[in-house]
Write a structure and sequence with these properties.
mainly alpha; 6 helices; 53% helix; 0% strand
């Protein structure tokens, strides 16, 4: 009887390990995303639909949450995910600062991130 129960425990541990190893970690910071939505997303607006579809891809690129788009990189330069996650004032200041930045610094006529948001577009480009 002891052998069967220890076998069941080992199988359970193995299943838990495989499930944990195969799950993708979420790198997006919920507080950052929530403040972004509070500041920029108005219910029923074209941007609301884009953000709902894009979710983490507002700041991240592709399927890997380790990769950021240009908007995410600009925010990452101003915010630390551990130190600033609960600092609403600093998050909003960073959003404001980044909104004034050109969406493509290599192009002098590129719209700012804020201009893209006002047009109802994702600031880092279409979600991939």
């Amino acid at each position: 009887m002891f052998r069967r129960s220890s076998f069941a425990v080992m199988v359970g541990v193995a299943v838990a390990f495989v499930a944990g190893a195969s799950s993708r970690p979420a790198y997006a910071i919920k507080q950052f995303f929530d403040e972004f939505k509070t500041v920029y997303v108005k219910p029923g607006s074209p941007l609301a639909a884009e953000v709902e579809t894009a979710k983490c891809n507002v700041c991240h690129a592709g399927s890997s949450k380790k990769e950021r788009n240009s908007y995410g990189n600009a925010l990452a330069d101003l915010l630390d995910k551990k130190e600033d996650a609960k600092n609403v004032e600093k998050i909003r200041k960073a959003l404001e600062t980044v909104a004034a930045m050109p969406s493509d610094p290599a192009k002098p006529d590129a719209p700012t991130f804020g201009a893209l948001l006002e047009q109802g577009k994702l600031p880092g480009g279409p979600a991939k």
